[in-house]
Amino acid sequence: MEKKEQYIPALNRRWLTPLYDPLLKWGMREDTFKRHLIEYSNLANDHKVLDLGCGTGTLTIQIKQHFPSIELIGLDGDATVLQIAGHKAEAAGISIQWKEGLATELPYPEASFDRVVSCLVIHHLTASNKVKAFKEVFRVLKPGGEFHLLDFGKPTSLIMKIISIPIARLEEAGDNIRGLLPEMLRCAGLSNASEVGRFKTLFGELVHYRSFHEDL
Ligand SMILES: C[S@@+](CC[C@H](N)C(=O)[O-])C[C@H]1O[C@@H](n2cnc3c(N)ncnc32)[C@H](O)[C@@H]1O
Questions:
Q1: Residue 171, domain extent
Q2: Rounded to whole angstroms, what are the CA distances from 130 to 10, 123, 137, 156, 186?
Q3: Is 7 a domain residue?
Q4: Domain assignment present for 150
Q5: How far apart are CA 78 and CA 74, in angstroms?
Q6: CA distances from 125 to 38, 115, 131, 134 (A)
Q7: Closest among 89, 26, 94 to 56, alpha carbons compared
Q8: Which pLDDT tens digit goes with each residue over 55-78?
Q9: Is 206 in the pocket of ligand 1 (CB under 6 A)?
């Protein structure tokens, strides 16, 4: 019998979703790395941008606040987090298009976006789904477009190595901790994957990777 694909929500269990925003804010220096992601993703007001796995929409809303004319879609596979994102945007007086969909089957034609950003999503995917998702990112990016991915990466200090032991054991996050994401990006067609920033958190070391849909 075919194995059912596992879908991992924001905090692994749906009943924990309401705790997601406070945990990110107080436990992971969320402001620091999301501000960095916005600052170093080379975004512009005339861009069309996809926030892949937008969750409760914190990053998506911040992007729209920095770039009010940007065309922005927040996509997530979980309808519950999208509802939270919608309420947060409404409270902030911001209009964003939210879309339910999967990273491995993006509901957009090829060459749709100038930028795809994705924060803390890829460690939810199995190795084969990571490559599938990266191929989808390559497909929907315009030539010359950029993919900015922030997620757990290979730890660089002893303390970060120790902190990373529990998540390194998970099938989905193990690829991140072993430093395999740049090679997976390359396999999917995305070129010149490089590190743009690193952030030490209570749960492990986060890396901002930039890669390109090369304009040939
Ligand atoms: C840890 S949360 C990160 C949310 C947000 N990007 C942030 O930085 O706060 C991971 C999100 O990825 C979504 N997700 C997991 N697997 C997915 C998939 N295959 N397709 C789309 N979204 C997915 C989950 O529903 C969850 O909202």
A1: 14-212
A2: 16, 8, 10, 23, 12
A3: no
A4: yes
A5: 12
A6: 23, 21, 9, 11
A7: 89
A8: 999 999 999 999 999 999 999 999
A9: no
Tokens 């950029």 identify what position? 146
| CATH number of the structural domain spanning residue 23 | 3.40.50.150
Q: Determine which of 2-16, 79-93, 108-122 has the lowest per-residue pLDDT on average.
A: 2-16
Q: Quick check: CB of 57 below 6 Å from ligand 1?
A: no
Is position 41 within any domain? yes
Shortest-distance Cα residue to atom 1 of ligand 1? 10
Structural domains counted in the chain:
1
**Most ligand 1 atoms within 8 A of CB, residue of 20, 121, 170, 201 to mutate:** 121
Ligand 1 and 193: CB distance under 6 A:
no
> Does some domain include residue 21?
yes
**Mean residue pLDDT across the chain:** 91
* Geometric angle at alpha carbon 170, from 167 and 171, rounded to 5°: 140
Identify which of 76, 82, 119, 123 to mutate to test ligand 1's pocket (most ligand atoms within 8 A of the CB): 76
Return the structure tokens found at 29. Answer: 């220096």
10 CB less than 6 Å from ligand 1? yes
pTM of the model: 0.92
